[in-house]
Design goal:
alpha+beta, 6 strands, 112 residues, elongated, four-stranded antiparallel β-sheet
Length: 112
């Protein structure tokens, strides 16, 4: 099993969710986050005053999938979230040692 963590632009969330559902993802966790990377924030003007925005809003997706589906999920996120502009996000793939469905006690791929 793999645990995929992706940070994407907030306005891409619905499009990414629909695409992932179409490739077989049955669930995910979503969090609103702030962060910075290469972009290192930016400056904005509010009521005539310029100020620095050091952390950029993003949406974090956390998805547990079977090994066989992981590459397709990563590729789907990459294609759908891409805007060709700085700040498109990052995707991390980790090995997932165990999963357990609390209600039924199912484990492993069956719990996903």
């Amino acid at each position: 099993m793999k645990y995929i963590i992706a940070a994407v632009k907030p306005y891409k969330l619905d499009e990414v969710r629909e695409a992932l559902t179409a490739v077989g993802v049955r669930g995910m966790m979503v969090s609103e986050i702030k962060g910075f990377g290469t972009q290192s924030g930016h400056t904005e003007i509010y009521r005539g005053a310029e100020y620095a925005v050091n952390f950029v809003p993003k949406v974090k997706l956390e998805i547990a999938v079977a090994d066989t589906l992981a590459d397709e999920v990563v590729d789907t996120i990459r294609k759908v979230a891409k805007t060709d502009k700085i700040g498109d996000g990052k995707i991390f793939v980790l090995d997932l040692e165990q999963a357990l469905r609390v209600r039924t006690g199912e484990t492993g791929d069956d719990a996903l």
